[in-house]
Amino acid sequence: MNRQFVRRLGWRWRVAALGLAVLVALGGAAIWQNVLGAGDRWERLVARVEVFIDPPPDRATLPTVVITPRPSATDPPPSPTSRPTASRNPATATPSPTPIPRVAVDVDLVADPAAVFASQITDKDCAVAGTQMVLAILGLGDNSTAFQDEIKHRIGEWESLSDSLNGGWGPAAVGEALEDYGATGYEVRAYETYTDALRDSAIAISELGKPVVMFPWWGAHTWVMTGYRADANPTVFTDATVTGAYILDPWYPRHSSIWGQSDGPGNFEDLAELERNWPVFGGPPPYQNIGPGWTRPEGLYPDRDDRFVVLMPTTPREEPGPSVEPRIAP
Q1: 208, 202, 205: which is closest to 231 by C-alpha?
Q2: 10 Å Cβ neighbour count for 240?
Q3: Distance (Å) of CA 45 to CA 26, 73, 282
């Protein structure tokens, strides 16, 4: 490259020119084939150069609410199966309530997952497709590529430096996009424990009738949780254990070199599979030494690092939706 031409470039564009030189040094073929992870490293470098040249705005956005661990359920749950003390006056005695049985339950907001599923258009559009699927479930959008493209190109209205140091989509941007399209009441939460995040997500789905947005793969991906199975109704029994979740994964039908083949729309992911994709102690080899939950390479997120981040509904569904009364599991 002509040095006089480089001198005329602004200092930010000199960095871009340097990045081009690095590309040549690494070897185009190795990057294209992702030999020894060269392609992944190059993509991270390009992302940093892009942010350096055109940083995201440092604007206010949805805060991240840190949820502390809930106390362990050491005592049996009150009320559902207990009998109140009867009045000494038979004429005013309060009848005993019908005990609620402790049985396994199965809940899913979506009867036909394929009808609301949207595969991400490119390998960078998982958050866009996740946003789209939530809107489709709530009757506020569809699963067309045109609608996904519309949402994608509005990111400039929602991106914030605190939400994504790389710029573009983060959990808060998804929440703001949902609100602009009419899905109000979503809150970014970061949980200290994986089990609390999953349990609160299950309760929100049953009580509010809205899906939950998860951020697995150390915060690099987006899933939409539409239902769950549990050994008891978690809205009634404080010690109920959620045994898995129904997931819409926008990565489908792609294959990941780290996480393997993606699952189809509405697949039930048991605890082992959820914990593999939303790592509790680390990831699959050779990534087992990476931290749990949210662990991003681009920098620090004090309210999210090593926690389990979800976009949680906090208000009921406004339009009538499908019944979410827990079914007794077969």
Answers
A1: 202
A2: 21
A3: 12, 47, 24
On whether the CB atoms of residues 31 and 42 are closer than 8 A, the answer is yes
Using one digit for the tens of pLDDT, what is the confidence trace for 265-304? 999 999 999 999 988 877 777 787 888 899 999 999 999 9
Quick one: which of 271, 277, 267 has its CA closest to 110? Answer: 267
Beta bridge partners of 97: none
- Long-range contacts of residues 282-285, Cβ cutoff 8 Å, at least 24 apart: 283/218, 283/258, 284/258, 284/259, 284/260
What tens digit of pLDDT does each residue of 213-267 get? Answer: 999 999 999 999 999 999 999 999 999 999 999 999 999 999 999 899 999 999 9
The answer, as to whether pTM is greater than 0.85, is no
Residue 299 CB neighbours (<10 A): 10
Query: What is the rounded CA–CA span in Å between residue 164 and residue 185?
Result: 21
Residue 31: count of CB within 10 angstroms of its CB: 17
Backbone angles phi, psi at 35, to 5 degrees: -65, 125
Contacts of residue 202, Cβ cutoff 8 Å, sequence gap at least 6: 107, 228, 230, 234, 242, 245
What interhelical angle do 11-26 and 38-53 show, nearest 10? Answer: 170
d(CA 141, CA 211): 14
Amino acid, single-letter form, for residue 177: A
Structure tokens given for 255? 């294959």
Contact 154, 160 (CB under 8 A): no
What's the maximum distance between 2 C-alpha atoms anywhere in the chain?
A: 101
- Token couple for 126: 């998982």
Backbone angles phi, psi at 218, to 5 degrees: 60, 30
pLDDT in tens, 317-327: 986 554 455 55
Architecture category of domain 64-70+101-328 in CATH = Alpha-Beta Complex (3.90)
